[in-house]
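Reviewer 2 asked us to include a model.

Predict the structure of this chain.
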Amino acid sequence: MPLETLDRTPPPFFKQGPSALSKLVLLSALALFLMVADARFHLVQPLRAVIATVLYPAQWLALQPVQAAREFSGYLTDLKTARKTEEAVRRKLAEQSQRAGQVEQLLLENARLRGLLALRERTPVPSQAAQVLYDATDPYSRRVVIDKGQLQGIAPGSPVLDGDGVLGQVTQVYPFVSEVTLLIDRDQVIPVVNTRTGTRGVAYGDPTAQGGLLELRYMPAGEDVKDGDLLATSGIDGVYPPGLPVARVVSVDRQSDSSFARILCQPLAQLQGASHVMVLTPMAQVTPAPTAATTPPPAAKPAASRAATRRSAP
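Predicted model (structure tokens):
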């Protein structure tokens, strides 16, 4: 094959066609036409709908990680907020519960103080209020300690009352505090009278046998005593003023082999939860007020003094 017949021009690297400028002009014109046509006649709207429908699954899958991250972040935020809210609500509930307990305690204390004031108005004996500090440490006696002593004028043997009735008697007096022996102590004895029948008797403390009851001893088996009878102080001992409520009869046991009835009584005073009490002056130390019958007449002036007065008058 002769060499002269070969084409010596190199082949083109890219396939030749319309120039780049021609393509730019054509595509720009087509884009401008499509924009104008879409703006005026909405020609591309169906195509957009088809493209959006086809691409929706891909878009949904692409947005799932972002949506999951946002939901997880929101869950953590909501959980943190819920925990803070729960803590605040629990703290507020605890404060309200504490306040409710304080209100109930204040209402109870207020009711007891009102009872003390009412009892003080009905008792014509000098008295002063005191607060119970604590129970005595002696396990074999029933005593409490109050915050008044010799410096406040407390005397041994003074009756002690709460808003419901007689609580006990002062047995030990110190400069700043005093010990009060409760009615249910085994060594306490108080003369009482049945307010229904007027029958007098003596009530003894018995703290161990019946859990804090009083026993009305030496009452004949045939005596008229019923459950619910109110016992008050008789005043014959010279310590307790008459008419103070003491206890109420809860049990009357009449046995055929005994000439005396076994009578148990429930004290009216709050022996276990008293906080404020009233200490009375013993009746033996109360000075009776002078009356018109006992007041001596004014002394008459001597005769000489009256004569001198008349002479000196003009």
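The chain is about 35% helix and 25% strand. The helical segments are 20-41, 45-122, 303-312. We have added this to the supplementary material.
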